[in-house]
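Posting this for the archive.
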Amino acid sequence: MRRRGSWRALVPTPVASGVLVLLVSLAPAVVGCRSSTDPGVGLAPTTGAPTATGPAAAALWLSFDEPTTGYDGSTAYADAQGGPLAGRVVTGSRGGVRRVAGPPGRGSALAFPPRCSASTGCPRAMVEVPPSPLLDAGTGALRFGATVRLAPGQTTAGSNIVQKGRYGTAGGQWKLQVDSDEGFPSCMVRTAEEVLTVRSRVSVSDASWHRVSCRRDADGLVIEVDGTADRRAGGVGSVDNDEPVRIGSPGVGDDDDQFHGSIDDVFVRVGG
């Protein structure tokens, strides 16, 4: 049977004060054939139940296994843990995503539009999760990442995997991208005054699946590719913006850094 995570959460529940309530139980949820995992720790088996009120309960996990319909009729994907957030597919220039086989034993993934040599009008697509205070780290710990498959011919000078905010966004920005033709991923956290970037020494452009994650903590910024870590010491201020989380591209315009490979198991964890 498939066990996804150790938490189950209901849809957001508005209350009089306008606060979003996240209802959580500690019982593991059984939903098919995926092994019990913790998306924020390299998809290793979960070794302990998270607390119902701690920051771990605010994690987002999109596994792309079971599509639903978004509020506007678009294809959407709910949080794999049953949380209140969901991502909807946004397209441009006749682009789209395809569900494909994910890493072994991990169900489905999403394949994004192929490379295009035209200067304008290339197919575009991304998955967008609406802004939520559950995904704002402030000055605290932050983890985010995904499992990716990228062939050598799919790389560009900028291929965005997941990010919240864009350059110049009020409240800062964080992102994970593959930022070279050679396929080396990097993590970046930016505020209005400071920016911290770390690049992995491990290329992911070999047509194999790789688990890539970023971690901001009190000491700096770490990127891990399949457990190989590279660290950049330093600090940045608060990252807290009103922007959506975007997966596969920062937008669907001609100049946006479209990812051309496949993505699975995107996660965001605030505070832990």
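The domain at 56-270 is CATH 2.60.120.200 (Jelly Rolls). The radius of gyration is 17 Å.
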